[in-house]
Amino acid sequence: MSDPTRTYLDFERPIAELDAKIEELEGVMARNGEDGPDLGDEIAKLRQKSSDQLQALYAKLDPWRKTLVARHPERPHLKDYYKHLIEDFEELCGDRRFSNDDAIIGGLGRFRGRSVVVLGHEKGHDVQTRIKHNFGMARPEGYRKAIRLMDMAEQYDLPVLTFVDTSGAYPGIGAEERGQSEAIARSTERCLTLGTPMISVVTGEGGSGGAIALAAANAVLMLEHSIYSVISPEGCASILWRDSARAKDAATAMKVSAQDLLQLKIIDAIIPEPVGGAHRNPQEAIRRVGDQMEQSLSQFEGLSPVQIRQRRRERFLSIGRSLLNG
Amino acid sequence: MNWLSRLTTPGVARMFDKRDTPENLWIKCPISGEMVFHKDLEAGQHVTPAGHHMRIGPDARFKYTFDKEWSEIAIPEVAKDPLKFKDDKPYPHRLAAARKKTGREDAMAIAVGQIQGVETTVLVQDFAFMGGSLGMAAGEAFIKACDEAVERRTPLVVFTAAGGARMQEGALSLMQMPRTTLGIQSLRDHKLPYIVVLTDPTTGGVTASYAMLGDVHIAEPGALIGFAGPRVIEQTIREKLPEGFQRSEYLLDKGMVDKVVHRKDLPKTLGNILRVMLKRPKANIAVKTAEPSEA
């Protein structure tokens, strides 16, 4: 069934047109009732066409289109993952130093029977919530809250699950003043010293240091159409060509897709999305994320803190080295 | 290329080329606008009379930092252009140009020598090499410096200078943030002091990783130090930034660095801090008895 509230991306126009046509025919049928011509066959044909085109389109998204899908406003957000994957979730707020940053939300909960600490970026889904969550761009307090919760995970021997979706850490005067760099560096360091398993999944955008601060994990997963990069494609384009409009070229050149990152051995696994992207079937996408996280987590359960740290260390040190002789 | 190079043999042309460097003889001080003769600038450790600390490369830095000789340690080889990155020029061409310009393999150089009599591993980041950017080579060099320090049981002093990560290596450069942090963990595990000297400029992924994880942070006066560059912040908040924002003195005021130290005082400060941390006797006794390193 086509959804009139759906946000179509520019490159999805052929699909949008087909879906509009289907809707129109359905409207005609509903109005005319039994007296009108039977449009059922026609509608079925169009549905098939729409579905085929969607599948074909998403099977070969270029890096820029993936960037657009990764940023899609209807893509499942942190609150959706928490709602469906984390039972008895209790949000824990504040860095105990300055304030609470809603760009990073974390707390305690149960993931498929295990007690866990969860952390992630929340971008918000409408004007009001986007402002509240600062579009998922964390300030130092967000990273310091993350450090605090990782300390707690260590203390109570709880695994840490993180959901990464940020265009990057917030570039502002206050953030700089309160040590944005130090906060990110310490958060990354805290991930690496953690004696309990940590599993991260990039669900949308993995933007630079703001992402790595929550993703220096034992296993790093990515949704099929998510991106992970050292700088936003726009930022890269504005530096290289002094023209942020060339973001498409930058996305291609930087190899930001999950498929590229798996090949470069930067991530451990790709989680396939439902046809047409996670936003077309959020429940299914979330379930798949949960399945892969559970599988990854099980690989580290039963290991000692020393082994867990050592495995994480080896994981990161081998990145890039494997490409030297390959 | 000019008419001379077309008319003469390469040898003769090169002879004329070498003389043809008048633009390097006088350097303009960015603070006062004063023209400073290059020999005077060198004599003053590349600090202008008005106090502006000019950017310097590894050779000058090693010279100003170590008591006497030092021995350089080669930086590890890394995979070449794994992304096949191309903007206006292919990445390997940019690398080749930077190598030619600086005479070095990448943006970092490692050396071992004595600072006020303390055997120390020193890592210098070179802004002249593609903006000092942190890519795989710089990341591996950093880890190598940590490993050397652990093996030799020396402290590590890092002079940072970088715009940030090297975009041409994409997420592989981003991964140098956790990777370098792992190097620092080795130092911590062995209780070896890790001191960061922040020099102009230190921003982006470099500040957000090893530059802000020192036991002690020292900044050279007037250095730009921050996470986001001033231009990015201005574009985001659409306001002019306050005077002195993200400069060393500002970071000192905000509690992000321990000290702002003039370049000529750095060896003494570093030596003093290291000697106390390592429970060594005062420097004036030790320096006199220090043996020259066997470089």
Report on this model:
The complex is a heterodimer of chains A (about 325) and B (about 300). Chain A has about 325 residues and is of the alpha/beta class. Chain A has 2 domains: about 10-60; about 65-325, 2-enoyl-CoA Hydratase, Chain A, domain 1. Chain A contains 15 helices and 8 strands. Chain A has helices spanning about 15-30, 40-60, 65-70, 80-85, 125-130, 140-155, 175, 180-195, 210, 235-240, 245-255, 260-265, 280-300, 305-320, 320-325, and strands spanning about 85-90, 105-110, 115-120, 160-165, 200-205, 220-225, 225-230, 270. In chain A, strands 1, 2, 3, 4, 5, 6, 7 and 8 form an 8-stranded mixed β-sheet that branches. In chain A, helix 1 runs antiparallel to helix 2 and helix 10 packs across helix 11 (about 245-255). Chain A is globular, with a radius of gyration of 21 Å. The N and C termini of chain A lie far apart (about 50 Å). By secondary structure, chain B is an alpha/beta fold. Chain B has 2 domains: about 1-50, no CATH class; about 55-280, 2-enoyl-CoA Hydratase, Chain A, domain 1 (Alpha-Beta Complex), CATH 3.90.226.10. Helix content of chain B is about 40%, strand content about 15%. Chain B has helices spanning about 5, 10-20, 40-45, 60-65, 90-100, 135-150, 170-175, 175-190, 230-235, 250-255, 265-275, 285-290; strands at about 25-30, 35, 70-75, 110-115, 120-125, 155-160, 195-200, 215-220, 260. Chain B has a 7-stranded mixed β-sheet with strand order 3-4-5-6-7-8-9, with helices on both faces. A two-stranded antiparallel ribbon of chain B has the order 1-2. In chain B, helix 6 packs parallel to helix 8. The longest helix of chain B has 17 residues, at about 135-150. Chain B is globular. The termini of chain B are far apart. At the A-B interface, helix 7, helix 8, helix 9, helix 10 and helix 11 of A face helix 6, helix 7, helix 8 and helix 9 of B.
